[in-house]
Amino acid sequence: MNAVGVDLKKLRAPALLLVLLLLLIALPHARPGYAVVLVYTILMYIVLTVSWVLFSAPTGYVSLAPAAFFGVGIYTSAILGMKLPLPVVICIGGLASAFLALLVGALTLRLKGIYFAIFTFGLVELIKHFVLWYELKYTGTRGRFLLPVGNNTIYYVMLAILVALLLTTYFIKRSKYGLALQSIGEDEEAAAHTGINVTLLKIITFAISAVFTGAAGAIWAIRLTYIDPYIAFDVNNSFMPVLMAIFGGLGQLYGPILGAVVFSFLREVLITRFPYYYMLLIGTILLVSILYLPNGLVGLIQRWRRRIWGGQHANT
Amino acid sequence: MVTFLNIVIAGLLLGGLYALIAMGLSLQYGVARVLNVSHGEFIMLGGLITWTLYTAFGVNPLLSLAICGPLTFLLGFIIHRTVFKRLLTSSESRGVFESNSMLASFSLLFIIQNIASIAWGPEIRGYSYLRVPVNLAGAVFGANRLMTLGFAVVIGVAFYLFIARTRTGKAIRAAAQDPAAAGLMGVNIDRVLALCFGLGAALAGTAGMLISLCYPVHVAMGLEYTVIALIVVVLGGLGSIPGSFIGGFALGIIGSVVTNIDPSLSLIAYYLIFVLLLLVKPTGIMGR
Amino acid sequence: MPILEGEGVTKYFGGLAAVSNVDFYVDEGEIVGLIGPNGAGKTTLFNLISGALVPKSGVIRFQGANITGLKPHRICKMGIARTFQSVKVFANMPALENVMLGSLFGAPNSVAPAEAVREATALLDFVGLSAVGATPAKDLTLANQKRLEVARALATKPKLLLLDELMAGLNPTETAEAMALITRIRDQGITIFMIEHVMKAIMSVCDRIMVLHHGVKIAEGTPQEIATSKKVIEVYLGE
Predict the structure, then answer these.
(1) Is residue B20 included in any domain, yes or no?
(2) Which of A110, A198, B54, C219 is the most exposed place for a label (fewest CB within 10 A)?
């Protein structure tokens, strides 16, 4: 293949992504209404999933903390929403989550395997019940209302968060820190003895992933309009990103994105079509995919490709 | 003095229940290596089945144990045979199996809860049985609560003896320590793991029956108990059955003390203990 | 002046002294061997030097600086690299990336990615793995994984290299190759401190040997002295 051909091939993926981004930007003008709500819901799940993948996929630390970070974002928005301009609120939501992640990370990232998962799971419940207790005891309220903002605003903010997240993830993955994160997942002790400051790297990456989850929570709060601790710190928001990422396949970055798109679309459709059987259907789909799609949708696609192209593309 | 006794007895009553649900989870994790997030759903099933049997057919709740126990056991056994056995063979390492099985149990939570809500609806159910006051050294408790404690202790001890003394118990302990070696020594490992998962589910079902004696039951109650069971299991040391038994009573008494100070603080206290314990001694109070 | 020295280094595991009041030194340019029966505390001593464990008491100095209780990554950057008794390679990463990580993170001065690729390629060549740079580490043979660990350690540009049973599990040919590799590393001016069970190897390669038994240093000297020491023979043949 000549040099020009290689260059063209290199340009193909960014060009495709740019077209996709333009289409997404144009969507609210072409198709206002329900489509916008549906798409920003999907975008929200992509943000949650990719943020989770950013830290947990390379390092192998299964975090069930996303609901905590998301909830902190939601509460930031609920408390500050009427006092400060929206972009500022979103940023503070992200930073507040990152601050929590720094704290939690410093304390707990030495826990190994299932203990880390259990700890982060408990953390969400601790925060939920603490906020519940605090509100009943000191503010005498339960739940808060938020001023609604136009759907298009929510849509564009969510899209901006996603773009920022994808760029961040891309640069981390390509940098030497991406390699280092992966080496932590492979063998943490060896990584430390190869000169990598494993503790610092884990904590900072954990915090970076929390920034985006928190920011997404801050804008999502406005879409919810009414929130209370049960809504804000819903454990489903911890499990969904994990399930979506695994559903898509963890190997490449596009796997979790694909997983989030397909799964959250399915979820929205099932909720509206079969409200009474929705959990049953979702549960079954998940169970089947965990049992029969060990490498997620990506693995399935690769298998099909191999069958069609006869093994030549086995490693793409 | 009476209040002190009151608090301790109330703590023991609560603790018996916690011990029971935690022992089931502990068995499932300790031997079958499944961190079963759907544990609470089996509790919910036990509670609601007991409620149906009592209100619709007038079956004595204690007798319904003979139905709840085997039923939840069978369900657990079948689930292990179909779902977790397959995951066990397809997972490349223990770590991968642990995270996969946790996620699979999360989808079971969805499935079981949805089926239950189709069957029972979202209403909160309760019935009155043995709600007669009993005077214990000046402190007054419902007979139903004392019954719960009695059952929890008897089942807990019986279960411990089963694990410690019987041939099957020996196989279970061997499987917990080293599945591969146990398999080589002639233990039918698949059967033992499914048995443990089933027994864990049966303990949950039994606990559900006992819970329905004292508290209202409903379809969405499961997760709360799962989380409490998780806390107790970590408190006692992941996978240690005596640890879970003692941990259950410890948490019950802590809960009772905190409730006496401020009822709304009890859950926060549980999580705080849980979080602190994980930080200070992740292997639990009985851990090495 | 010794490049590495320890004074009264002690470490307990639950009341049991794994390493007890051990004094040691390694001179610049030396190859020093550390031997002793299983459970003598050899790997524990390496873990104390490399920062994987913190000693209960005692001082460890590297090039005159106190490194006691520093984190492993700091010690690595100061110039001490190591390999592990049970190989610890980054299993799913290509061999080249395994080595690159050493250049990128472990060297005293930071290195640009392109430079890291060049260094890693050269090091793979140095240890004889240039043909398998793209192969995931887990697919290499044990002997090759051990060489990969050496290459990764060398990528951090160490002044002192700790080798923990480099030859365990290797066949005679591979052992001979490993011995040659050690000599070539020393020729680059790198000091070597090595744990080994293969007596033939350690006797022919080392300038000096230290013997640990039950966490205590019981002998020290030239290979000749150690081979004829009554105390050492007793320990190995049983009292």
Answers:
(1) yes
(2) A110
Domains assigned to chain C: 1-74+160-169+191-239 (3.40.50.300), 80-157 (no CATH)
Residue A196 has pLDDT above 80, yes or no: yes
Q: Name the percent of chain B lying above pLDDT 90.
A: 19
Residue of C92, C116, C152 with shortest CB distance to A194: C152
Closest residue, chain A, to B87 (C-alpha):
A291
Could you tell me if residue B206 is inside a domain?
Answer: yes
Residue recorded with tokens 């030495």 = A110
**What whole-number distance in Å separates Cα of residue C122 and Cα of residue C116?**
10
**How many C-beta neighbours within 10 Å does residue C147 have?**
26
- Measure in Å the smallest separation between the Cα of A202 and chain C Cα atoms: 14
- On the question of pLDDT at C98 being above 90, the answer is yes
Hey, is the C-beta of A201 within 8 angstroms of any chain C C-beta? no
Reported as a single tens digit per residue, the pLDDT across C125-137 is: 999 999 999 999 9
CATH of the domain at B237: 1.10.3470
The answer, yes or no, to whether residue A4 has pLDDT greater than 70, is: no
CA distance C108 to C147: 22
pLDDT value, residue A303: 82
Flag whether residue A176 sits within 8 Å of chain C, measured between CB atoms. yes
Q: What are phi and psi of C25, to 5 degrees?
A: -150, 155
**Contact residues, chain A, for C152 at CB < 8 Å:** 194
Cβ(A114)–Cβ(B238) under 8 Å?
yes
Q: Is residue A311 part of a domain?
A: no
Q: Which amino acid is at A103?
A: L
Domain that holds residue A136: 13-236
Domain limits for position B95: 2-280
In the three-class reduction of DSSP (H, G, I as helix; E, B as strand; rest coil), residue A112 is classed as coil
Q: Once rounded to an integer, what is the mean pLDDT over residues A183-205?
A: 94
| A136 in B contact zone (CB under 8 Å) | yes
Give me C85's structure tokens: 């008794």
Q: What is the mean pLDDT of residues B255-273?
A: 83
Only one residue has tokens 């903002």, namely A149
Q: Which of A9-18, A194-203, A280-289 has the lowest mean pLDDT?
A: A9-18
- How many domains in chain B? 1
Domain count, chain A: 1
Alpha-carbon span A171 to A166, nearest angstrom: 9
Share of chain C above pLDDT 90, in %: 69
**From the list B35, B108, B227, which residue is nearest A125 (CB)?**
B227
Establish if A156 belongs to a structural domain.
yes
Q: Which residues of chain B approach chain A closer than 8 Å at the C-beta?
A: 35, 83, 86-87, 90, 95, 98-100, 102-104, 106-111, 113-115, 117-118, 223, 227, 230-231, 234, 238, 264-265, 267-268, 271-272, 274-275, 278-279, 282
Tell me, yes or no, whether B286 lies in a domain.
no
pTM of the model: 0.88
Coil, helix or strand for C227?
Answer: helix
| A300-314, B196-210, C151-165: segment of lowest average pLDDT | A300-314
Q: Is pLDDT of B138 > 80?
A: no
Residue A258 maps to a domain: no
- C100 neighbourhood in chain A, CB within 8 Å: 179
Please check whether residue A136 lies inside any domain of the structure: yes
> Is residue B285 in some structural domain?
no
Q: Assign C20 to helix, strand or coil.
A: strand
**Where do the DSSP E strands lie in chain A?**
144-145, 226-227
Q: A212-234: per-residue pLDDT in tens?
A: 999 999 999 988 889 999 999 99
Determine contact: A110 vs chain C, CB below 8 A: no
